[in-house]
């Protein structure tokens, strides 16, 4: 799979550079149009790349014309879809006949198809930018194509490292597989040809310097303004909306009562949260191999047994799992086989407007992200923190850069530890929980610093050439 991509990028680079230059001379070259223009490139679903959308939004706020290139599928955040400064160029989907091929021919054909369509879209459809901001991973063939086009156009290429492609590949193939090693070589060689590098953690910055010999700038994810603490009235409005389709949110199944839900009620003096409401647990997952949902499922099984004993004073848990991904149907089948009485697990996909309100309405968040490299930080925790929501998260190498154990949440290594944490934080609910209250208080300083302000300090100087 990656063998061809690596050889394609390294062996044929000079030849393609020469041929491309000749082609460009025969085309009408798209020169700069006098505007401040930046391209943001994602070789994936743009709507599922929040960090790159936030980059685009911040660039537009700074009066840059922004061209976003990537695949369609999910809805963009409203600030992008409504912005006159943003143009979106969708890449053509992989043809179905390619997807039906056997594994190796499929991968080779996919890389060829993406190389041609990405190159053609950049050269033929877009104007020359001063800067190009590329998300990686994916790395093959986007890094190679963007290096080539940036060299031909004289644009500055900034690669934003969210993780490493080779570590993600290692999840399924193993660390010692030849394809994983070749992809490591490919990523390392490509890193030398870019103008600048961003990364999501200080641990990744150190790793890039130590193992690849390249410098980078840390741009931590920060919550945008859509992730905020919300009022009880806003929570009630969301619960009413969810109760239209999800029985657990109804007032004991009473569909006629429009002023009460299973969590909240409207009274003559205003809205309030019910004293007999369940504990609302939220987890967002991509349903992939780097997030082991079985950890949460096993922890909830232990909680179920503990909650059956009235002496433990544990509430019913409503656990909402949001997200899309390849393993979703597998785990949904497992959930259906459970005979829970004290736990209700619901999978759903919410709009970009409702998702932040759900996080702000929850009592606790759970993050199962393992990190294939141990160097990337989960944006879902950032979103939860932005809404003032404490989090229990799976512990990995650099998690402490975001979640500080016993300060703004708890870290766990096993499902047994997570089960114990759930019992500790749910005990006596809805009476005030000392730990949860302390975690929420400690999050105030975190969600006071928002994405755009932080971005202006750390990325804007890089784009304008002042860093």
TrEMBL record:
Membrane topology summary: Single-pass membrane protein
Gene3D superfamilies, A to Z: Glycogen Phosphorylase B
Enzyme Commission number(s) from the entry: 2.4.1.142
Pathway: Protein modification; protein glycosylation
Stretches that traverse the bilayer: 6-27
Keyword flag Glycosyltransferase: yes
Its job: Mannosyltransferase that operates in the biosynthetic pathway of dolichol-linked oligosaccharides, the glycan precursors employed in protein asparagine (N)-glycosylation. The assembly of dolichol-linked oligosaccharides begins on the cytosolic side of the endoplasmic reticulum membrane and finishes in its lumen. The sequential addition of sugars to dolichol pyrophosphate produces dolichol-linked oligosaccharides containing fourteen sugars, including two GlcNAcs, nine mannoses and three glucoses.
Family from the record: Belongs to the glycosyltransferase group 1 family. Glycosyltransferase 33 subfamily.
Full protein name: Chitobiosyldiphosphodolichol beta-mannosyltransferase
Naturally occurring in which organism (per UniProt): Amphimedon queenslandica (Sponge)
């Amino acid at each position: 799979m990656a063998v061809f991509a690596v050889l394609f990028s390294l062996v044929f680079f000079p030849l393609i550079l020469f041929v491309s230059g000749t082609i460009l001379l025969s085309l009408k070259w798209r020169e700069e149009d006098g505007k401040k223009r930046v391209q943001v490139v994602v070789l994936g679903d743009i709507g599922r790349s929040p960090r790159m959308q936030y980059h685009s939004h911040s660039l537009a706020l700074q009066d840059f014309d922004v061209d976003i290139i990537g695949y369609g599928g999910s809805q963009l955040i409203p600030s992008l879809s409504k912005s006159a400064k943003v143009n979106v160029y969708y890449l053509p989907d992989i043809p179905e006949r390619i997807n039906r091929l056997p594994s190796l021919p499929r991968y080779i054909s996919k890389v060829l198809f993406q190389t041609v369509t990405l190159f053609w879209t950049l050269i033929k459809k877009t104007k020359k930018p001063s800067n190009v901001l590329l998300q990686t991973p994916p790395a093959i063939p986007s890094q190679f194509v963007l290096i080539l086009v940036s060299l031909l156009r004289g644009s500055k290429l900034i690669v934003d490292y969210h993780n490493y492609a080779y570590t993600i590949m290692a999840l399924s193939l193993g660390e010692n597989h030849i394809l994983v090693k070749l992809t490591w070589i490919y990523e390392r060689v490509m890193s030398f040809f870019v103008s600048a590098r961003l990364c999501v953690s200080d641990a990744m910055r150190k790793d890039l310097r130590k193992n690849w010999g390249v410098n980078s700038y840390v741009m931590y994810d920060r919550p945008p303004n859509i992730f905020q603490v919300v009022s009880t009235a806003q929570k009630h409005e969301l619960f009413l909306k969810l109760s239209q389709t999800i029985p657990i949110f109804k007032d004991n199944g009473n569909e006629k009562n429009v002023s009460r839900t299973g969590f909240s009620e409207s009274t003559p003096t205003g809205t309030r949260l019910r004293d007999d409401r369940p504990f609302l647990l939220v987890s967002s997952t991509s349903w992939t191999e780097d997030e082991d949902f079985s950890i949460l499922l096993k922890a909830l099984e232990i909680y179920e047994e503990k909650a059956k004993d009235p002496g433990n004073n544990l509430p019913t848990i409503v656990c909402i799992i949001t997200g899309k991904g390849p393993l979703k149907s597998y785990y949904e089948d497992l959930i259906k086989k459970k005979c829970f009485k004290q736990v209700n697990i619901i999978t759903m996909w919410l709009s970009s407007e409702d998702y932040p309100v759900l996080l702000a309405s929850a009592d606790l968040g759970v993050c199962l992200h393992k990190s294939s490299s141990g160097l990337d930080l989960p944006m879902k925790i950032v979103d939860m923190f932005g809404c003032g929501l404490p989090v229990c998260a799976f512990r990995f190498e650099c998690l402490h850069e975001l979640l500080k154990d016993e300060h703004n949440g708890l870290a766990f290594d096993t499902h047994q530890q997570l089960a114990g944490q759930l019992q500790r934080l749910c005990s006596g609910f809805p009476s005030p929980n000392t730990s949860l209250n302390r975690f929420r208080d400690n999050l105030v300083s975190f969600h006071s610093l928002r994405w755009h302000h932080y971005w202006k300090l750390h990325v804007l100087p890089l784009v304008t050439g002042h860093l």
